[in-house]
Task: structure prediction
Amino acid sequence: MSSKELQGLGKGVMGDSKFKNSNVHGSHSNMDLVCGETHDGNSEEEYLARVNWMHGNILTAQVLNRSHSKLKILEFDISTGQRKVMLVEEQDIWVTLHDCFTPLDKGGNRYSGRFIWASEKMGFRHLYLHDANGNCLGPITEGDWMVEQIAGVNEAVGLVYFTGTLHGPLESNLYCAKLFVDGSETLQAPLRLTHGKGKHMVVLDHQMQSFVDIHDSLDFPTKVLRCSLTDGSLVRPLYEQPFNIPRFKRLQLEPPEIVQVQANDGTILYGAMYKPDETRFGPPPYKTLVSVYGGPSVQLVCDSWMNTVDMRAQYLRSRGILVWKVVLCFHLWRPVTASRSMLQQNETDRLALIAFKAGITQDPLGMLSSLNDTLHFCRWSGVYCSRRHVNRVVRLNLFSYGLVGSLSPHIGNLTFLRTVILQNNGFHGKVPSEIGCLFLLRVLYLSNNSFQGTVPTNLTYCSELRELNLIDNKLDGQIPKELGFLLKLRALGLTLNNLTGKILASLGNLSSLTLLSATYNHLEGSIPEELGRTSLDIIHLMFNKLTGVIPSSLYNLSNMRAIQLGENQLEGSFSQDIGVAYPHLWYLGLVNN
Result:
């Protein structure tokens, strides 16, 4: 939308404007949003893209910069006109607009105030659940395919319905997925509700019982069905166009042949080929017309009747001309490393690292001086990039750099990180919940810092996490039960914090856990029997307020090497055959119980 168009529109809606709210009896609030008014081409708010209402009479606006590489969601308080940035979506090439922003506000349930957002930060457009402040709570979908549109949300049962390309980039089907996964298991593949190849456009009924399926493919025209929203079974057909119409036969329409071409970077491109009739025009070669669309978000090649009835292509075919239709656009089906500019530079990772540096207030050793634009970020001190995924940061190791500052939430944009080592520094403030967006993270060392607040429950989305070291910080609150969903976790270090509450039985789900260290906290209650289901060989729980007896299930842990349970309020006694139960035990500490 141009500046002049916005100026004309803004007088009644937004942009140096007065927004009329009928719910407040004709009063007006000024919304501080001016798009397209700068002339240097660098405005971050050049285009007003979308406007939405959220629960609680909150107005949101999506604004784009001139190059379509950065989108911001702004939240407005309509009573004061104050605004704040709720979410920023940034790509090094192009941010694709969509209509998947879905506020959750029906019935005042646990989802109230949250919203669904679609992002391509992992290379394919997928759905993510965010809280009212814009923090990512975790993914709803994932994989090498894309979500197209949200068809509906049933908040009462926690399900979201959407169309996507899970069963092939040339098709579109309706799927159902859980709105929120509690972390007890990895994301499951969505349930497919439409049947038959081709394209499915759907409309859900308001009672969430059935849907209308508008279905077509290269081989047959549109038919309309009513289907069950439970399993996609047919309720009744509504319309089907017959094939025996005389003019269909006279047109002699032949579906194009779908072909695949592999690009230099390995990306599979799809083309539609309309071949002339060899009985009339002989064998090839033929005169050829190439129909190309090179822009974003338009898919010309798909398994749809619209390609069969492309009358321009069919007419040229009937005149002996081969028509080759191809889409040179990777937004619909592309690996993360597809684009050429991404091979040269990954802007998302670079900007995330710059934001990380901005949170550092002291760098006594000058270790971050290399973080500048004169040197490629993969050569910055402590930054390690992948060889397989070019220019993607996989390891951040700043051990004992003497850094002081806060940990930027932008670290959640380094989505290929496997290892984060920030121990022996002076980081303070909260551990950002955006770490939960690091779905590939395996090692997180934040020990010997001054982090405050609670242990982020969003860590449950780091389903690949093996080692979590939060020793010697100032964390408080309880050990989150969500840690029991990190099924690959081997080592958990919580010593020297201010944690309270109980050692939760959910930690017994961690069958791979070998080390549990929570000494010098304020933990109370009994040691749960469920710990006997783990693989613990070291357990350090000294200097707490634990009570009760030592659970007999711990005798099942025959690889136990060290037990430190001193300075608690435990009672009872160990079995006399402890040497048999623990043949590898070298330390046993039970003093002052």
